Amino acid sequence: MLSTAFIAQLETQVQALSATVDGQLRPLPSQELNYKPTPTAWSVLECLEHLNRYSRFYNPELARALQSAPAGAPHEVGFSWLGRKSYDTVKPENHKLQKTVKHMNPAGSQLTAEVVEEFLRHQQQLLQLLAAARTANLNRKAVRVEFFRLLKLRLGEALQFVVAHEQRHVQQALRAAQTAQARGQEAVLVV
C-alpha cells in the first residue's frame, strides 16, 4: 500500500476509536466502567489503562523516530517478518487470547474515569504523530519494541501495531461494557 493511503487509513481508524470511546464508553457510570465480566477478565477501565501504558511508551518512541526520520516521497510500505508477526498477534480479528507482560497488566488496579480521559489524550497525540508521518520514510527501522528494546520495528509497522492493538482492546472494552449494561438491566427486571 502506498504510504499516503496507509497513513490516511490509520488516521481514520484512530478517529473512529476516539469517537467510539468518547461516545460509548466515556458516558458510562463508574460501576459499569469497573465491572469485570468474569474474575479474570478486564473491565472497561482496565482495557483502556492497558492501552494507556502502551501509549506512554510508544507515543514518545514514535515521536523520537519521526524527529530523526528523513522526509521522502510517497512509497510502498513494506513489512518485515517481525512487523507482520507483531500485527498478526494483536489484530482485532485474532480472537486468540494473548498474555501481556506483567507491567502492562492493569488487573487489580484502582482506576477512575481519568483513564478514559488519558486514553483520549493519547489518541490526539497519535493523530499528531500520524500527521507528522505523512512525509516520513515508513520503511525505516526506528521504533524499539516495548517488551524487548533491542528489537526494532519499521516506523510503518509500529504505527500499524499500535492502532491494531488499540482496536483489539477497545473492542474488548465494548464487550465488557455491554456485559455490565446487560447485567444492570437484568437486575432492574428482577426487582
Automatic annotation (TrEMBL):
Residues 24-173 form the DinB-like domain. This is DinB family protein. It comes from Hymenobacter chitinivorans DSM 11115. The lineage of its organism: Bacteria, Pseudomonadati, Bacteroidota, Cytophagia, Cytophagales.
